[in-house]
Design goal:
This protein is of the alpha/beta class. The protein is 42% helix and 13% strand.
Length: 244
């Protein structure tokens, strides 16, 4: 639980701190760069789609299984095959995805900023996320920046189900009527809209500079509280919003 006066800032992992596109480097060892880029994009697409379908069916599978099954789907879609040992190698590589270039300086600055409690908040399993945060070459040097690792396994729902954001609030000592005191930082629009729909603040990381395009929900609940071009802007945005 965070100190009451601290601002809780929850960082999404995949697509925000870690680049899922970096898995293409491993895939290129098997299929060449062009095919690898296509497979990596399809892998991520199916990974997310599977979580949403399971939410709709009121079912749950560990994110590790979903990630493996979505890999198989992506490989079949591209009419290529890979033996079990090759698939296992790719799954292990998922524990050491590269960070985006802006992550290291942003987390270094965040570690020296008082009044903010940072956590990792992810669809991933406890094992997957812990391995990435504590053992990946890029992210592990900053592991102590995060007070907690919070994953969705406990409530058996995936983002953007409201239950996962409410669980985050419970873990951080925030009741449903206090969720506005927490921030989600995410590069995934569906995650941002999910957080806003329950009353959280949310910063969308628009690294590509394309601007907000999601039109699912009208009004403020369908838009981020703030749009940042990189994680280096997060601390100032959060503190300004809090009047600090």
């Amino acid at each position: 639980m965070s100190a009451n006066h601290d601002i809780v800032v929850a960082f999404d992992l995949y697509g925000t701190l870690l680049s899922t596109e970096s898995i293409a480097k491993k895939l290129a060892e098997h299929y060449g760069q062009d095919k690898a880029t296509t497979i990596a994009a399809a892998w991520r697409k199916h990974q997310l789609e599977y979580t949403w379908r399971l939410n709709s069916m009121h079912q749950f599978e560990p994110f590790s299984k979903i990630t493996h099954r979505s890999l198989k789907n992506a490989l079949r879609e591209s009419n290529v095959s890979l033996d079990e040992s090759g698939q296992d190698e790719l799954m292990k590589a998922y524990d050491s995805l590269s960070t985006f270039p802006d992550v290291k300086p942003a987390l270094t600055a965040l570690a020296d900023t008082p009044g903010i409690t940072a956590v990792v908040f992810s669809n991933g399993t406890q094992s997957m996320v812990s391995n990435s945060v504590n053992h990946s070459p890029d992210l592990s040097p900053h592991a102590k920046t995060f007070q907690q690792i919070i994953v969705v396994e406990e409530c058996k729902k995936f983002k953007p189900a409201p239950e996962v954001y409410e669980m985050l609030g419970q873990k951080m000592g925030k009741s449903k009527d206090k969720l506005s005191e927490m921030w989600l930082i995410s590069g995934n629009p569906f995650d941002v809209v999910g957080a806003k729909s329950v009353g959280m603040q949310a910063a969308w990381v628009d690294r590509a500079g394309n601007g907000w395009q999601d039109e699912l929900i009208d009004g403020d609940k369908g838009r981020p509280t703030a749009i940042v071009k990189g994680l280096g802007e997060v601390v100032d945005v959060v503190k300004k919003h809090a009047g600090r």
